[in-house]
Amino acid sequence: MPNTTTPSPLRSSLKPGSGAAEVADQLPEPEDVAGRLCRTPVFKSAPAGAVLDLVRAGVIRRLGRREFLFLEAERPGGIYFIVDGQVKVVRQGADGSETILHLVGAGEFVGLVAALADRPLPASAQAIGPTVVLWLPGDRFRAFLLRYPEVALAVMGLMAGRLHEIQNRFHDVSTARVEGRLARLLLHLAGRAGRRTPEGVVLLLPLTRAELAELCGTRLYTVSRVLNEWQRAGAIRLARRRVVILRPDLLAEIAGEVEPAGWVIA
Protein backbone atom coordinates (compact mmCIF):
# COMPACT_ATOMS: atom_id res chain seq x y z
CA MET A 1 0.00 0.00 0.00
CA PRO A 2 1.70 3.25 -1.06
CA ASN A 3 2.13 6.14 1.34
CA THR A 4 1.57 9.75 0.39
CA THR A 5 1.57 13.08 2.16
CA THR A 6 -1.01 14.62 -0.16
CA PRO A 7 -4.17 15.74 1.67
CA SER A 8 -6.83 13.14 1.06
CA PRO A 9 -10.26 14.79 0.63
CA LEU A 10 -9.97 14.82 -3.17
CA ARG A 11 -9.17 11.13 -3.64
CA SER A 12 -12.46 10.42 -5.51
CA SER A 13 -15.66 12.02 -6.79
CA LEU A 14 -16.91 14.80 -4.57
CA LYS A 15 -19.55 17.40 -4.01
CA PRO A 16 -18.53 20.58 -2.15
CA GLY A 17 -21.12 21.72 0.30
CA SER A 18 -21.07 25.24 -1.09
CA GLY A 19 -19.64 25.56 -4.47
CA ALA A 20 -18.60 24.83 -7.96
CA ALA A 21 -16.72 21.64 -8.64
CA GLU A 22 -17.43 18.25 -10.10
CA VAL A 23 -20.73 16.95 -8.73
CA ALA A 24 -21.26 13.22 -8.24
CA ASP A 25 -24.69 11.70 -8.81
CA GLN A 26 -27.01 10.83 -5.95
CA LEU A 27 -25.02 12.46 -3.20
CA PRO A 28 -27.04 13.83 -0.28
CA GLU A 29 -27.54 17.57 -0.04
CA PRO A 30 -25.68 19.53 2.67
CA GLU A 31 -28.98 20.07 4.50
CA ASP A 32 -29.55 16.31 4.69
CA VAL A 33 -26.03 15.66 5.96
CA ALA A 34 -26.33 18.45 8.53
CA GLY A 35 -29.56 16.87 9.76
CA ARG A 36 -27.78 13.57 10.27
CA LEU A 37 -24.96 15.29 12.14
CA CYS A 38 -27.46 16.99 14.43
CA ARG A 39 -28.88 13.59 15.38
CA THR A 40 -25.49 12.27 16.53
CA PRO A 41 -24.41 12.45 20.19
CA VAL A 42 -21.56 14.80 19.25
CA PHE A 43 -23.62 17.49 17.53
CA LYS A 44 -27.06 17.12 19.11
CA SER A 45 -26.52 20.14 21.38
CA ALA A 46 -25.19 22.45 18.64
CA PRO A 47 -27.39 24.97 16.75
CA ALA A 48 -28.66 23.49 13.50
CA GLY A 49 -27.65 26.55 11.52
CA ALA A 50 -24.07 26.39 12.77
CA VAL A 51 -23.86 22.69 11.87
CA LEU A 52 -25.13 23.42 8.36
CA ASP A 53 -22.48 26.13 7.92
CA LEU A 54 -19.83 23.62 8.98
CA VAL A 55 -21.09 21.05 6.48
CA ARG A 56 -21.09 23.64 3.68
CA ALA A 57 -17.41 24.26 4.40
CA GLY A 58 -16.70 20.58 3.80
CA VAL A 59 -16.77 18.06 0.98
CA ILE A 60 -19.24 15.22 0.44
CA ARG A 61 -17.79 12.13 -1.24
CA ARG A 62 -18.92 8.74 -2.45
CA LEU A 63 -16.70 5.65 -2.20
CA GLY A 64 -17.06 2.34 -3.97
CA ARG A 65 -16.45 -1.00 -2.29
CA ARG A 66 -12.77 -1.43 -1.30
CA GLU A 67 -11.96 2.16 -2.30
CA PHE A 68 -9.63 3.92 0.11
CA LEU A 69 -10.81 6.99 1.96
CA PHE A 70 -7.26 7.81 3.01
CA LEU A 71 -3.89 6.11 3.29
CA GLU A 72 -1.53 5.68 6.19
CA ALA A 73 0.91 8.59 6.64
CA GLU A 74 -1.29 11.10 4.81
CA ARG A 75 -2.08 14.40 6.46
CA PRO A 76 -5.86 14.57 6.28
CA GLY A 77 -6.29 18.29 6.83
CA GLY A 78 -9.60 17.50 8.50
CA ILE A 79 -11.87 14.78 9.81
CA TYR A 80 -14.30 12.41 8.10
CA PHE A 81 -17.91 11.78 9.09
CA ILE A 82 -19.48 8.58 7.73
CA VAL A 83 -22.86 9.58 6.31
CA ASP A 84 -23.79 6.14 5.02
CA GLY A 85 -21.96 2.82 4.80
CA GLN A 86 -18.97 1.40 6.67
CA VAL A 87 -15.18 1.68 6.51
CA LYS A 88 -12.48 -0.46 8.06
CA VAL A 89 -9.39 1.15 9.56
CA VAL A 90 -6.35 -0.96 8.67
CA ARG A 91 -2.63 -0.97 9.35
CA GLN A 92 -0.10 -2.62 7.08
CA GLY A 93 2.81 -4.58 8.53
CA ALA A 94 6.38 -4.60 7.27
CA ASP A 95 5.70 -7.95 5.57
CA GLY A 96 2.70 -6.55 3.70
CA SER A 97 0.12 -8.19 5.98
CA GLU A 98 -2.97 -6.18 6.90
CA THR A 99 -4.55 -5.84 10.33
CA ILE A 100 -8.02 -4.41 10.87
CA LEU A 101 -7.91 -2.05 13.85
CA HIS A 102 -11.61 -1.24 14.00
CA LEU A 103 -14.76 -0.56 11.99
CA VAL A 104 -16.42 2.82 11.59
CA GLY A 105 -20.05 3.08 10.53
CA ALA A 106 -22.73 5.63 9.69
CA GLY A 107 -22.93 8.44 12.22
CA GLU A 108 -19.31 8.04 13.33
CA PHE A 109 -16.05 9.88 12.73
CA VAL A 110 -12.71 8.64 11.46
CA GLY A 111 -9.35 10.42 11.42
CA LEU A 112 -10.37 12.45 14.44
CA VAL A 113 -7.19 12.18 16.53
CA ALA A 114 -4.84 12.87 13.61
CA ALA A 115 -6.83 15.94 12.59
CA LEU A 116 -7.02 17.41 16.09
CA ALA A 117 -3.32 16.75 16.74
CA ASP A 118 -2.32 17.84 13.21
CA ARG A 119 -0.35 14.62 12.73
CA PRO A 120 -0.11 12.08 9.89
CA LEU A 121 -2.75 9.38 9.85
CA PRO A 122 -1.52 6.25 11.67
CA ALA A 123 -3.60 3.87 9.52
CA SER A 124 -5.59 3.63 6.29
CA ALA A 125 -9.37 3.60 5.89
CA GLN A 126 -11.10 1.48 3.23
CA ALA A 127 -14.79 1.26 2.35
CA ILE A 128 -16.34 -2.13 3.05
CA GLY A 129 -19.20 -1.38 0.67
CA PRO A 130 -20.71 1.68 -1.04
CA THR A 131 -20.11 4.55 1.38
CA VAL A 132 -20.83 8.28 1.56
CA VAL A 133 -18.58 10.48 3.69
CA LEU A 134 -18.26 14.12 4.66
CA TRP A 135 -14.82 15.71 5.01
CA LEU A 136 -14.69 18.65 7.44
CA PRO A 137 -11.71 21.05 7.38
CA GLY A 138 -9.64 20.68 10.53
CA ASP A 139 -9.36 24.41 11.23
CA ARG A 140 -13.11 24.93 10.91
CA PHE A 141 -13.81 21.91 13.12
CA ARG A 142 -11.40 23.08 15.83
CA ALA A 143 -12.96 26.55 15.76
CA PHE A 144 -16.39 24.90 16.09
CA LEU A 145 -15.20 23.01 19.19
CA LEU A 146 -13.93 26.23 20.78
CA ARG A 147 -17.23 27.96 20.09
CA TYR A 148 -19.38 25.09 21.37
CA PRO A 149 -17.59 23.45 24.35
CA GLU A 150 -20.43 20.96 24.84
CA VAL A 151 -19.52 19.52 21.43
CA ALA A 152 -15.86 19.35 22.49
CA LEU A 153 -16.88 17.41 25.60
CA ALA A 154 -18.87 15.00 23.45
CA VAL A 155 -15.82 14.49 21.21
CA MET A 156 -13.73 13.71 24.28
CA GLY A 157 -16.34 11.16 25.35
CA LEU A 158 -16.25 9.59 21.90
CA MET A 159 -12.47 9.27 21.99
CA ALA A 160 -12.61 7.80 25.50
CA GLY A 161 -15.16 5.23 24.32
CA ARG A 162 -12.90 4.15 21.45
CA LEU A 163 -9.97 3.79 23.84
CA HIS A 164 -12.13 1.64 26.10
CA GLU A 165 -13.14 -0.52 23.13
CA ILE A 166 -9.48 -1.01 22.15
CA GLN A 167 -8.56 -1.98 25.72
CA ASN A 168 -11.36 -4.54 25.81
CA ARG A 169 -10.25 -5.98 22.49
CA PHE A 170 -6.65 -6.38 23.65
CA HIS A 171 -7.91 -8.04 26.83
CA ASP A 172 -10.05 -10.44 24.80
CA VAL A 173 -7.19 -11.38 22.49
CA SER A 174 -4.97 -12.05 25.51
CA THR A 175 -7.39 -13.98 27.69
CA ALA A 176 -10.50 -15.20 25.83
CA ARG A 177 -10.94 -18.29 23.68
CA VAL A 178 -11.49 -17.77 19.96
CA GLU A 179 -15.12 -18.93 20.23
CA GLY A 180 -15.89 -16.28 22.83
CA ARG A 181 -14.13 -13.54 20.86
CA LEU A 182 -15.95 -14.45 17.65
CA ALA A 183 -19.33 -14.64 19.38
CA ARG A 184 -18.80 -11.22 20.97
CA LEU A 185 -17.71 -9.83 17.63
CA LEU A 186 -20.84 -11.08 15.85
CA LEU A 187 -23.09 -9.67 18.57
CA HIS A 188 -21.21 -6.37 18.42
CA LEU A 189 -21.57 -6.21 14.62
CA ALA A 190 -25.26 -6.99 14.97
CA GLY A 191 -25.57 -3.95 17.22
CA ARG A 192 -23.80 -1.77 14.67
CA ALA A 193 -25.32 -3.11 11.46
CA GLY A 194 -27.92 -5.78 12.13
CA ARG A 195 -31.41 -6.08 10.70
CA ARG A 196 -34.11 -8.29 12.18
CA THR A 197 -35.85 -10.59 9.70
CA PRO A 198 -38.33 -13.48 10.16
CA GLU A 199 -35.38 -15.87 9.96
CA GLY A 200 -33.06 -14.07 12.32
CA VAL A 201 -30.70 -11.09 12.47
CA VAL A 202 -28.82 -10.39 9.24
CA LEU A 203 -25.42 -8.74 9.56
CA LEU A 204 -25.41 -6.10 6.84
CA LEU A 205 -21.63 -5.75 6.74
CA PRO A 206 -20.17 -7.67 3.77
CA LEU A 207 -17.14 -8.89 5.71
CA THR A 208 -15.12 -11.84 4.50
CA ARG A 209 -14.08 -14.64 6.84
CA ALA A 210 -10.52 -13.36 6.57
CA GLU A 211 -11.67 -9.95 7.81
CA LEU A 212 -13.56 -11.57 10.69
CA ALA A 213 -10.37 -13.44 11.56
CA GLU A 214 -8.38 -10.19 11.60
CA LEU A 215 -10.93 -8.55 13.88
CA CYS A 216 -10.75 -11.54 16.23
CA GLY A 217 -6.97 -11.75 16.18
CA THR A 218 -6.91 -15.32 14.90
CA ARG A 219 -6.45 -17.38 11.71
CA LEU A 220 -8.83 -17.75 8.80
CA TYR A 221 -8.93 -21.53 9.24
CA THR A 222 -10.03 -21.20 12.87
CA VAL A 223 -12.83 -18.74 12.08
CA SER A 224 -14.08 -20.93 9.22
CA ARG A 225 -14.10 -24.00 11.47
CA VAL A 226 -16.01 -22.27 14.27
CA LEU A 227 -18.56 -20.68 11.90
CA ASN A 228 -19.23 -24.03 10.25
CA GLU A 229 -19.69 -25.67 13.65
CA TRP A 230 -22.18 -22.98 14.68
CA GLN A 231 -24.07 -23.39 11.42
CA ARG A 232 -24.40 -27.13 12.01
CA ALA A 233 -25.64 -26.39 15.53
CA GLY A 234 -28.31 -24.04 14.17
CA ALA A 235 -26.91 -20.89 15.77
CA ILE A 236 -26.17 -19.09 12.49
CA ARG A 237 -26.63 -19.44 8.76
CA LEU A 238 -23.79 -18.60 6.38
CA ALA A 239 -24.38 -16.93 3.03
CA ARG A 240 -22.07 -15.24 0.57
CA ARG A 241 -20.38 -12.46 2.59
CA ARG A 242 -23.30 -12.55 5.01
CA VAL A 243 -24.01 -14.08 8.40
CA VAL A 244 -27.55 -14.58 9.72
CA ILE A 245 -27.77 -15.01 13.50
CA LEU A 246 -30.53 -17.54 14.18
CA ARG A 247 -29.91 -18.08 17.92
CA PRO A 248 -28.49 -14.94 19.56
CA ASP A 249 -29.04 -16.57 22.93
CA LEU A 250 -26.52 -19.29 22.05
CA LEU A 251 -23.95 -16.74 20.89
CA ALA A 252 -24.51 -14.70 24.05
CA GLU A 253 -23.90 -17.83 26.14
CA ILE A 254 -20.68 -18.55 24.26
CA ALA A 255 -19.61 -14.92 24.61
CA GLY A 256 -20.29 -15.02 28.34
CA GLU A 257 -23.06 -12.41 28.14
CA VAL A 258 -26.18 -12.85 30.25
CA GLU A 259 -28.62 -10.94 28.05
CA PRO A 260 -28.35 -10.67 24.26
CA ALA A 261 -31.25 -8.24 23.87
CA GLY A 262 -30.88 -4.58 23.09
CA TRP A 263 -28.24 -4.76 20.37
CA VAL A 264 -30.37 -5.32 17.28
CA ILE A 265 -31.00 -2.42 14.93
CA ALA A 266 -34.49 -2.52 13.43
Q: Write the H/E string, N to C.
A: EHHEEEEEEHEEHHHEEHHEEH
pLDDT < 50 stretches = 1-7, 10-24, 258-266
Structural class: alpha+beta
Distance between the termini: 37 Å
Main beta sheet: 5 strands, antiparallel
Kindly report the spatial arrangement of strands forming the biggest sheet: 1-2-9-4-7
Give the CATH H-level superfamily of the largest domain: Jelly Rolls
- How large is the radius of gyration? 19 Å
| Assembly annotation | single chain
Task: Give the tally of structural domains.
Answer: 2
Give the averaged pLDDT, no decimals: 83
Q: CATH topology of the largest domain, what is it called?
A: Jelly Rolls
Number of strands: 13
CATH architecture descriptor name of the largest domain: Sandwich
Helix content: 25-40%
Shape: globular
**Helix count?**
9
| Beta-strand content estimate | 15-25%
Give a quick precis of the structure.
The protein is built from nine helices and 13 strands. By secondary structure, the chain is an alpha+beta fold. Strand 10 and strand 11 form a beta hairpin.
Account of the protein in words:
This protein is an alpha+beta fold. The chain folds into two domains: about 15-170, Sandwich (Jelly Rolls), CATH 2.60.120; about 175-255, Arc Repressor Mutant, subunit A (Orthogonal Bundle), CATH 1.10.10.10. The chain is about 40% helix and about 25% strand. The protein has helices at about 30-40, 50-55, 110-115, 140-145, 150-175, 180-195, 210-215, 220-230, 250-255; strands at about 15, 60-65, 70, 80-85, 85-90, 100-105, 110, 125, 130-135, 195, 200-205, 235-240, 240-245. The strands form three sheets. It has a five-stranded antiparallel β-sheet. Strands 3-8-5-6 form a four-stranded antiparallel β-sheet. Helix 4 crosses helix 5 (about 150-175), helix 6 crosses helix 9 (about 250-255) and helix 7 packs across helix 8. It is globular.
